[in-house]
Design goal:
Shape: globular
CATH class: Alpha Beta
Number of domains: 1
Largest sheet: 8 strands, mixed
Order of helices and strands: EEHEEHEEEHEHEE
CATH superfamily: Gcn5-related N-acetyltransferase (GNAT)
CATH architecture: 3-Layer(aba) Sandwich
Helix content: 25-40%
Distance between the termini: 16 Å
CATH topology: Aminopeptidase
Strand order of the largest sheet: 1-2-5-6-7-8-10-9
Structural class: alpha+beta
Number of strands: 10
Number of helices: 4
Radius of gyration: 15 Å
Strand content: 25-35%
Length: 166
Amino acid sequence: MNLPPYDVFPVLTSDNILLREILTADINDIFEISYYDSKQASGAEEALVMLSKIDRNYRDGNSIHWGIADKESNVIMGTCGYYRGFKNKAGELGCVLRSQFRGKGIMTSAMRSAIAFGFNEMLLERVFAITGKDNFKAIKLMERLEFKKKSEPDDTNVEYEILAKK
């Protein structure tokens, strides 16, 4: 498997977006959507601490986390990436988008790029996502991306997956 960290942080492009490394200079654009271990940042300082942890996870080979940037302005509109390691050639994909950019196809495009990278570059055999049972927009996104419902790990969450084409 070809897993992080990479010699050069991978930049992915699609339509009018690019997936790129999140820099400390981006923190004011993303602190409202900064999460780590399901906990949301309370402000820019905590978001910087979270970004540092995410960067350490990347350097340790356990994740890759992209900022979803507008190609023209380079402003971060959201994030997506693989989290919690790559056990059994599987990657857990997560995402979040700033509210003013929702409903424009941005996340669909970003996730397609991340999925393709996972299968083609990281050589994953399975990509999965876990979301709340009541997160209807995320569930609709998973279905649009052709994820299949796999399980309900607990009373509040549902797991979706895509398997590599053989």
